[in-house]
Amino acid sequence: MLGALFALGACNNEKDEPSGEEGKQGENFVGGHEYVDLGLPSGTLWATCNVGASSPEKPGSYFAWGETSQKNFYGWNNLAYCISYDDNTGQGSFSKYNDTDGLSELQASDDAATFAWGSSWRTPTGNQYRELVNECSWVWAKQNEVNGLLATGPNGKTIFFPAAGFFYEGYVDGMGEFGDYWSCSTFQDTNANSFAFGFEDELDFGVGADARMDGLSVRAVVVR
User: Fold this and answer.
1) Are 29 and 203 in contact (CB under 8 A)?
2) Whole-structure pTM value
3) Cα(143)–Cα(107) distance, integer angstroms
4) pLDDT over 90, % of the chain
């Protein structure tokens, strides 16, 4: 499963197998967590690991959008701030991050990256992911026997996104086949922007949207 992609990056149809050191570049830490300066125009600094992971190839934790802890089942009926959801219409009602409160990005109290790693970290915005897609070169890679996506920044430094799948209802789907990562930005009614990728006949990746109830990975950025 991939999010609804609508800002695709340039594709590279070849698979690559980087050495164990690739994806681990960067010697800077904030709050005990390492980041990489990829040389992006915005200066955004990206974490080397997923939230909840001990190394770049580990999947880490899965979070519903707007929640700060992992759970055993992901659904509309136990999603934070969800008042109701109609399966027939696909419409939901929310007590926060709705059409009237003006909140289009996660507040710190609802941000899994901030909650886990401290106030210097946050879940990226949709635009920060779009910059990453547009400014980096990308290749499907295998690191320590784990499939994923390797991004190389304008300055030649890299970060690795493991293909951790996503947590749907009571199980993880797509481990090793695709990755799905939250942004902190809302996207229409019941969705939020996400960064998704996978490799079948060719590499497919971009910024799209997923249902807020789904359990996705989180890759944090440093607050500037």
Assistant:
1) no
2) 0.88
3) 33
4) 81
Nearest to 182 by CA among 63, 102, 91: 63
CA torsion sign for 224, 52, 195, 109 is negative
Paired sense of beta strands 15-16 and 137-143, if any: parallel
Kindly write down the DSSP assignment for every residue of 36-87, as one continuous string: EE---TT--EEEEEETT-SSTTS----B-TT--S--S-B-GGGSTTEEEEET
Give the containing element (helix H, strand E) for 34: strand 33-37
Question: What is the rounded distance in angstroms from the CA atom of residue 110 to the CA atom of residue 112?
Answer: 6
Three-state DSSP class for residue 158? strand
Q: Helices H, strands E: what count in the chain?
A: 2, 16
Please give the average per-residue pLDDT across 102-106, as a whole number. Answer: 95
Token pair in block for residue 67: 């929640």
